[in-house]
Amino acid sequence: MKSNLHPLPLALGVALAAAPFAAAATGAATDLDQVVVTATRTEVSLRDSLVPIQVIDRAAIERSQATSLQDLLRGRAGINLTNQGGLGKLSSLFVRGTASNQVLVLVDGVRIGSATSGMPTFQDLPVEQIERIEIVRGPHSSLYGSEAIGGVIQVFTRSAPEGLHHDAMSGIGSNGYRQVAGSISQRGERGWVSLRAARQRTDGINACRGTAAGWGAGCFADEPDRDGYRNTSYNLRGGVALGDSAKLEAHALDVDSFNEYDGSIFGGNEAENRQQVYGARLDWDAGNRVKLTTQAARTRDRSENFFASEGSRTFASEFDTRRDTASIQADLALAQGQQLTGGADWQDDRVNSSTPFDVDSRDNLGVFVEYQGRFGAHALQASARNDDNEQFGNHTTGSLAYGVGLGHGLRLTAGAGTGFKAPTFNDLYYPGFSNPALEPETSRSVNLGLAQEGAGWDWTVNLFQTRIEDMIGYDSGFNLVNIDKARIRGVEFTGYASLAGFDLNLELTHLDPRNDGDTSAHGNLLPRRARNSGRLDVDRAFGALKLGLTANGTGYRYDNAANSTRLAGYGTVDLRLEWNVSPAWSLQARAANVFDRQYETVSWYNQPGREYQVSVRYRSL
Prior knowledge:
Elements: H1 7-23, E1 35-36, E2 44-45, E3 53-56, H2 58-64, H3 69-73, E4 79-83, E5 91-95, E6 103-107, E7 110-111, E8 130-137, H4 141-144, E9 151-157, E10 163-173, E11 177-187, E12 191-202, E13 229-242, E14 246-264, E15 268-287, E16 290-309, E17 312-335, E18 338-353, E19 361-375, E20 378-389, E21 393-407, E22 410-421, H5 425-429, E23 441-454, E24 457-474, E25 480-499, E26 502-515, E27 532-542, E28 545-554, E29 557-558, E30 566-567, E31 570-579, E32 585-592, E33 611-619
Parallel strand pairs: 6-9
Antiparallel strand pairs: 1-2, 3-8, 4-5, 6-7, 8-9, 10-11, 10-33, 11-12, 12-13, 13-14, 14-15, 15-16, 16-17, 17-18, 18-19, 19-20, 20-21, 21-22, 22-23, 23-24, 24-25, 25-26, 26-27, 27-28, 28-31, 29-30, 31-32, 32-33
């Protein structure tokens, strides 16, 4: 395996790339006035957020020409990604060094993910269905409960613009890549509805380069073939205004995927997966400065696995989890610039699996309260929550954040919070590999941020530390216990500049994620987290022609807790072109990994080399 990222070139690249952010003084600034909701569960402008948050809107998604959610998130501040063999393959997302199951993922305000594994299937959320993404970094259990130790990622699906609209796209590319998508929508004065469908497929690459002697090395099979993937999704949204003070909305997302992977003696080598998110929401302006919101939803995460060989197919396993949720929230305006929010969340998880679980259902009731206040240049946010879980009892979390304007566009923020993660059904009840006496994992985090905004430029630096206790791991007898601890420190930089017609976006992360437990791994780096990572996006428009470049760099990481298997760092460059043929039609072309770098994010699992895609888009005027 070649190392494509070395410390000296990385340092030089960072210095050169950061220069425009210190020098730029003209041009269009980023839209810091856009409204976000994930960080507070209420509407607040991006510039006023007291916690680190990033927004990727639809314009940025289309400009990037990303083919997957992983493409969109790769290299973002605080984010590490791993992938087991290309498009559609199992992917893990680490926010600020925390594990994938310590990050909460929402779709249109609804918690998603498997109740058995505890992980959402990031790889199956289709980009063509996404309107925008809000990434909140840092603990948010005091507002959302379990899993929000590292942060919260909320995906908002596409809705209906004003009037009658329809759009379509079609694309092809390397490795048999094909994609089509289209929608029709209508938004009037009192109601709206939209329907969007998308299909994506690829012949894929050889996901895994085989296996080696020893337990757990490789993918337990040597299958040097292409591992394909296909994804079909539908998104239906609608709403109606109920008089002048109430609004009712409903949404349904259905994603059906088929995935080939290099086989395991345990799990097969083909999977049929399905994700469903159904929800309804009622917003009511009750008067006297009170706003009420209620929401009910059901999600489903199903995976059927098979052994396939030479035309035969044998059933291996099925995991089917269903989650019903309901919430009520009241927002009370106490005075100008001061708001009190309170509410309750109910959740019921149920498991239907070919593997027998001693317990196959549980419920959780969480109640929370939040205060937000602004006093001139000062701002304060405080929240607390108690979760009463059927299996592990009560757990209380809290957070506090403060911000102050220092003049000259400078702003200082500081925050602290606690988080927790409940054990999954696999942790508690999977036959032979579980422990029903496990307790929740807990965390304590602090964050210190400094930001500045100018005419055509802005930058933000965040320093953070997270300590996690009672992490679930194996003792010397291979029993699952609350034995591990972690201490994660890091610094993030994000910056934007408009310089000489170029839009420059730079994101850098340095991470020190250490095992802090009383085990032989004490002091080791946590597995699969790169210590250094960064992303640079450069875009330039020449009339109807737009050019863009994305450079991603990632330092070395270890594939195991013992730090005996080291994966080399790497760097990739993507190029893109877009031509607006007319106001309604556009052509796009993209070359990914143009230097054909070979690298792995999980040991033994291949990543795509150089790839090309071309697509055409149409939208009604």
